[in-house]
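Need tokens for this chain, all 271 residues.
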Amino acid sequence: MMTDRQRQFREQYKANISPLYNGLLHVSVMYGAGIATIWFCLNRMQAAGWEWLIAVPVFIAGNFVEWSMHRYVMHRRIDVFALRAIYERHTRQHHQYFSDVEPTIDTTREFRIVFFPWRVLITLGVGGLVFGSIAALVLNANVGYVVMITMVGHYLVYETFHFCCHVHDNWFVRNMPFVNTIRRHHTAHHNMGIMMRYNMNLTFPIADWFLGTSDLRRGLPGHLFNGYSQEHVKDELKPIIGRFRNDHSRVTLDGPQLTAQEQGVLAGAPA
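Here are the structure tokens for all 271 residues:
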């Protein structure tokens, strides 16, 4: 059941969304630009073979960058304009709007709180162009295009998986491999007690598994194909998760106010 605190925040947030905002236009431009970029790169490639293998390290690196951005920028206030704005949007808005009890949206206007602004895709495109150009100079043009395709593709997967985490439960998100895993993984991340330290991945929980910041205790295959199962949630985290599930009296815009004992559990929970 949604707390009064969350309900009030939602009402205020929705009231402040610009009447000009169009959620369908937002995602159409984002996916349209991303797919067009991938299509352009595919059509520029010539007889690519081994170059496709470059997608693997780029994908793995992207997974760790995703984790790092979430942990150290989206959940840590850095007093630099762009970075501070990311923190404000994520910790002080997204995490107030959603909780592990009520993580879903009802209308397309709420796309505003789920999807990144267009400028994120532009920034990623610039980054892909830089790294792709370097790869093309060092190796060949095909490698550069693979780098760009992988980076943009990763972003589109991120946004798609995140959207699947915040829609109402349905057959697809409940049964689709990887999607059902990340939906449970991200919903758990929205628990106010563990949100600042656990479940930072939003595509595949590879970095969370490797770095020990997953709420589960199991191997990589188990992490990837966990689905909705709660069987392997770390026992030491369960009291904190349960405590903050319906009681937000110790929650602020900047996260939970934890006791010393709770901080010790979160800092020392073994992988």
